[in-house]
Write a structure and sequence with these properties.
Number of helices: 7
Strand order of the largest sheet: 1-2-3-4-5-6-7-8
Number of domains: 1
Distance between the termini: 54 Å
Structural class: alpha+beta
């Protein structure tokens, strides 16, 4: 394509990629979304580059159609979401691990590499869920990350739960999270040891103040930025701002049941 900066000038050699066809429709976007879900649902985990290619197509067409944008203010981000694709171990979808890497930038990859290399069935991870409750009038709210972790061939399981505060929004697609606590909930090991008292013990056990610990290691590390580059009634594409090239794919489990309290 030849570009002129002025009708009277000679054509330049500059070329630019062609824009997506203007005839694209909502049904075309729905088909791309279906392709993405099919890719993520395969028994064999898809390659990162394969997922990123479909994600790019979804985001490009969505931008052309004006759909799924402004995730930090549209209200659609509220509700419960289930992780269908993570570029790494599913635990890395939790903002705790994003903050951990900010606090310990030199040691994090080595530590993650050791834990990720533990084979199944010794360690199994998933499913993972997130609950988001953003009050658009104050740009604050609550964020809960839950990841099931099973060890010892499934003999011991727990839900690693990280709770964070939404402390603000940034731009059209950014939500700033401040990690507060992390706690293994619904521990089957406690259930086996304490029987009918297990529920009481699980509820009474205090959560670990992970945000406070991260701040001691590196001031400011407990705050991370989640950017959601696409969000509608069924699909959410979110990214850690510090590792933007690695998208997490979420499908909606439930809409928000009530207004933020």
């Amino acid at each position: 394509m030849v570009v002129r900066s002025d009708p009277g000038e000679e054509p330049s050699d500059a070329t630019f990629p062609e824009a997506p066809p203007s005839s694209s429709t909502k049904s075309d976007l729905d088909e791309l979304k279906a392709d993405l879900f099919r890719c993520c649902d395969r028994t064999t985990k898809p390659l990162v580059d394969e997922v990123k290619m479909i994600v790019r197509d979804v985001e490009d067409m969505a931008e052309l159609l004006g759909i799924g944008q402004c995730s930090s203010s549209s209200g659609l981000i509220n509700g419960e979401w289930e992780l269908v694709y993570s570029p790494e171990d599913e635990t890395r979808s939790s903002p705790f691990f994003w903050a951990f890497k900010r606090a310990f930038p030199e040691q994090a990859d080595q530590i993650f590499g050791i834990t990720d290399s533990i084979p199944a069935p010794v360690k199994e991870v998933g499913p993972a869920y997130q609950e988001i409750d953003l009050d658009s009038s104050t740009n604050t709210g609550k964020f809960v990350s839950k990841v099931k972790v099973a060890t010892l061939g499934g003999a011991a399981t727990s839900i690693m739960t990280t709770r964070a505060s939404i402390v603000g929004i940034q731009g059209l697609d950014g939500i700033r999270l401040k990690v507060e606590t992390t706690k293994p909930e619904e521990s089957t090991l406690i259930n086996k040891l304490f029987g009918p008292l297990a529920d009481t013990i699980n509820e009474a056990a205090p959560p670990f103040p992970s945000g406070e610990a991260l701040e001691k290691a590196m001031p400011g590390s407990s705050e991370v930025l989640m950017r959601t580059t696409y969000c509608d009634d069924s699909l959410r594409i979110s990214r850690n701002e510090d590792e933007f090239d690695a998208p997490f794919i979420w499908k909606r489990k439930e809409f928000a049941s009530s207004e933020y309290v």
